[in-house]
Amino acid sequence: MKEAILAILACAILLFGCAGSEPQAAPSGGNTGGAGNVPTGASGGNPPTGGDNGATPPPSTMPPLDARGELSDLYNRQKTAEFLVSYDVTTSMSAGVTKMDQYLKGMSKIRIDTKSQGVDSRAYMLSDILYSCMMQGGAWKCYKMDVPLNMSELASADFSKNLDTYTIVKDGSMSVAGTSAACYKLTEISTGHESRSCFSAEGVPLYVKSTATNPSTGTFTSELTATNYGTSVPDSVFELPAVAETLPSFGGQMGGTVDPCAYCDYLDGADKADCLASCNQ
User: What is the CA radius of gyration of the chain?
Assistant: First the structure.
């Protein structure tokens, strides 16, 4: 349960991308790779205004974006994007692969599915309200959090606002889930923690590998790899699989002390045991 809540929040803020997730088969017409920015006046677009027909337009006076500027631009694109993406997530602290799906239409419709240790869970963020659903005894149970989330505030606090705390360099490109992704190497200045992050033209992270070293716990690595990617999401994806019950506050406003494991107290028997096992991992 904790994974679902943290994942949805990370996705909304950065996402982080979540660095942040795995949907059904991508619909036809999704990304096939190689998409990029097309400058005004390029082939297929409208010709520049103010010049003679056929005349060569003057060169742009805008300097090209550096790696930091490009990355900030990609994060901003993601906030208004429509996409579905499937991820395989692995870490050095746990065996096996966690499956994760993300569905997003701007910042008002977000859904994240996770499957870990046999537990299926979903988190929805719809019009600033967070819903959490879990498969229990072959049927879905959904809960509505009674603390509304202010998405505009979360967005203003996203990771892209902290890019100055990293050294950022371009790191080539790679093909992920049939899509060309631009890659960047980020090194946190204060800790030396490193990550390689690769993004689609829409600003969606398709590959993230991070390494962090702690003197007391050693080196931790995580890797997120997209296995499927598309840019069309039907509204039906954001319909809850069951009527949501209102779940009391976990003991604080967003940003305060929150205990996601409190959700498990509303379950019984094997469902409660599975919930606690997933929450405490």
Answer: 21
pLDDT reported for residue 260:
52
Q: What's the CA gap between 275 and 278, in Å, rounded?
A: 5
7-16, 20-29, 87-96, 168-177: which has the minimum mean pLDDT? Answer: 20-29
DSSP string, 126-188: ETTEEEEEEEETTEEEEEEESS---HHHHHHTSGGGGGGGEEEEEEEEEEETTEEEEEEEEEE
Q: Give a yes or no: residue 29 inside a domain.
A: no
**Model pLDDT, residue 36:** 35
Our count of domains for the chain comes to 1
CA–CA separation, 166 and 110 (whole Å) = 28
The sheet carrying 205-214 orders its strands as 166-176, 179-188, 194-199, 205-214, 218-230, 82-91, 94-105, 109-116, 119-126, 129-136, 139-145, 244-247
Domain assignment of residue 275, given as a range: 2-23+68-279
Asked if residue 53 is part of any domain, the answer here is no
Structural domain includes residue 58: no
Choose among 193, 200, 161: nearest CA to 178: 200
* Both tokens assigned to 116: 């870990």
Cα 74 to chain centroid, rounded? 13
Given this model, what pLDDT does residue 147 score? 59
- The answer to whether residue 233 is domain-embedded is yes
Q: Which amino acid is at 280?
A: N
